[in-house]
Amino acid sequence: MTAQRLLVRDLAQLATPAGEGAPLRGSELGKVDVLEDAYVLCTGETVEAVGRMRDLPTELAREGDVVELDGSGRSAVPGLVDCHTHAAFGGDRVEEFSLRAAGATYEELHARGGGILSTVRATRAAGEDGLRAAVERHHGWMLRHGTTTFEGKSGYGLDRDTELASLRAIRAAGGIPTWLGAHAVPPEFEGDAESYLEFALGEVLPEASRLAEAADVFLERGAFDAAQARRYLEACRDAGLALRLHGDQFTEQGAIPLAVELAARSVDHLEATGAHGVRTLAASGVVGVLLPASALFLGRPMPPARALVDAGAAIALATDFNPGSAFCESLPLCCSLAATQLRLSPGEALCACTVNAAHVLGRAGRLGRLAPGFHADLVLLDVPDWRYLAYHLGGDIVAEVVVGGEPAELR
Ligand code: NIG
Ligand code: FE
Questions:
Q1: Pocket residue to mutate for ligand 1, from 83, 166, 218, 298, most atoms within 8 A of Cβ
Q2: What is the pLDDT of residue 62?
């Protein structure tokens, strides 16, 4: 059986990160190749060719097996890659959101047993079927905004069964699972982080390491300290997982030096990162994942994105989708925040949530660019200029999404 072919034709523009390397940094980060009046030809799940309409091979027109998609008036970008989400959760935090709107702070609510721990209660109560339904629903929301690849973290179960069910639910919805076993100390451990880690590494890691690709830790006052984070990450590394850290969200607690020392894939948040941290990260291979929707949602300072890029750091852009600190699944909105709040160009934002995000997930050879040999994931914007991705603040600009060479049903 021959593979199905899909021809996306007459695109006003096709925009893709320039070059072939990953991660992109410095002046390379913002470089975008733009083709006017373009096509993308997909064979099966793979991009076979991209080019100008005038160069479209004429014999294609004679081959009957090509499905066509009209791209006129539209622009195409690579399928967006969300490399940081907490998609596996039950319940919501709308009550807490209202309290925060009236002045309570995120850290106060967390210290009072609300915050992450209230989502832990709801997630444990959801059961595996409930969790699968929740992640599937969240996946549909992301796809509607052009996300064709998402990473999803556990971290709201914090007991063996719910952590493993979360990882399975993420995988079942097509996500890339990360075990966030060190997100908070659950109530049954009464604040004893060491005993909790003993349990998590002894009882959960052996199976979590078979289900997940990476491990993540929340290194912050009120969560896990640097010594505990090191213990957790070293054990996870020894079990074969790639490493990620939530670091410098509220305070600098040594996340960047630890990430560099352990050769983590990324350190994420960085709202509290100072000049020394910027220099340390820039001199390393660790990607700084910026989450401007989270800073906005919590009314926190934005991360020093411009300083990081100018110093030569590799950065990625992600939503941090979760019920407490960033109830936002839209990477286009994050691109707008990148341009308006982080002082990044639309090109830097595009590269940060495509090729560099794919690098964080260990998939830059196959995802994040529109080029022959890449997975045939693309987003058609309903406008003839791809920069609307950042320009149209909160705009409903995604007209069509192609996943693995097939037009997706958007809900
Ligand atoms: O990335 N900071 C830690 N974890 C999540 C928020 C979790 C929550 O509030 O439920 C974050 O912001
Ligand atoms: Fe997060």
A1: 218
A2: 61
